[in-house]
Amino acid sequence: MKLPIKDPWRAWYSDKQVGGGYVVGYGALTLVTVRGAGHMVPTYQPERALLMFSSFLCGKLPPPS
């Protein structure tokens, strides 16, 4: 899609623990992964899923550390 990178690739953290996953921002598109989760993220990683969704609702990226 050749979108410009707005926020470079980085790890994000859940409750100061081991990385929650990775995030990268491309203009109006953001890709967020959740470490240790299957295709049903809230079932496998509920705390990380809540943090990711809350960040989305606030219009922010998940916290870097």
UniProtKB/TrEMBL annotation:
<dbReference type="GO" id="GO:0006508">
    <property type="term" value="P:proteolysis"/>
</dbReference>
<keyword id="KW-0121">Carboxypeptidase</keyword>
<protein>
    <submittedName>
        <fullName>Serine carboxypeptidase II-3-like</fullName>
    </submittedName>
</protein>
<keyword id="KW-0378">Hydrolase</keyword>
<dbReference type="InterPro" id="IPR033124">
    <property type="entry name" value="Ser_caboxypep_his_AS"/>
</dbReference>
<keyword id="KW-0325">Glycoprotein</keyword>
<dbReference type="GO" id="GO:0004185">
    <property type="term" value="F:serine-type carboxypeptidase activity"/>
</dbReference>
<dbReference type="InterPro" id="IPR001563">
    <property type="entry name" value="Peptidase_S10"/>
</dbReference>
<keyword id="KW-0645">Protease</keyword>
<dbReference type="Pfam" id="PF00450">
    <property type="entry name" value="Peptidase_S10"/>
</dbReference>
<dbReference type="InterPro" id="IPR029058">
    <property type="entry name" value="AB_hydrolase_fold"/>
</dbReference>
<comment type="similarity">
    <text>Belongs to the peptidase S10 family.</text>
</comment>
